[in-house]
Design goal:
With about 270 residues, the chain is of the alpha/beta class. The chain contains 11 helices and 10 strands.
Amino acid sequence: MIKAENLAFCYSPAASVLANVSFHIEAGTIAAIAGRNGAGKSTLLRLCNALLKPTSGCLRVNGIDTRETSAAKLARIVATVFQTPELQLFASRVVDEISFGPKQLRYSRLQMEQAVAAAMERTGLSSQAESHPLDLTHAARRFVTLASALAMKPRLLLLDEPQQGLDAAAIQRLEDILRAEKAAGVTILFTCHDMDFIARNADHLLVFGGGALLRSGAVSDVFSDTALIQLAGLKLPDSMLLAQMLQLPPARSCEQLIEFWLKAKLLRS
């Protein structure tokens, strides 16, 4: 679904952001991008939706060379939710905000109504359809932008720090949506500073540092590379750190940690 070959990008000749980046993310995968601030995470998302073009190298999305297409054309299969929802909102009603994308894709009236209603239901916004998006809480605004993306039924969903500012209940709703989209075959690429969120939700992890891709691979494998985690300025997810202390396999969630502990206890008994 996403394939980068020797990808490089710089905003100016003296300011290289990404250099010699190569990776491949299969369709239907949830992939996370991690690294320090300024590592190029958000820049990579903008390269994936063609808002930015590679300085050199190549990036293909669903077989489409992003150098040879526009962001508008790629929006037929790629939807993006930016880190700051307020910068993405413009309509005076939630329902109008969510309807904008389907209108641009020329959905029929019935298709649009069904897609918008389903997106609002999934994001908990059905009762706020007539509200002004900027009158909502920060978390609700974030879900408005996510609903706008879901209503377009993308094949690739790009999310910049999607969990930021959400409470436990909202994060659970977000994680349910991510799992449902994956089950439907949608590829998801998100940036995140929360290693526990990554461990619970991502299949694949790309770690960036100093403009370079330090490692790309399965989440458990990448987090098992202690030297890499230190080099990138990251920390182990709490479940994996505790599993390490208990000499258990890498656990991607508290539930999995308990499962591993119970199995180990049964083996010892």
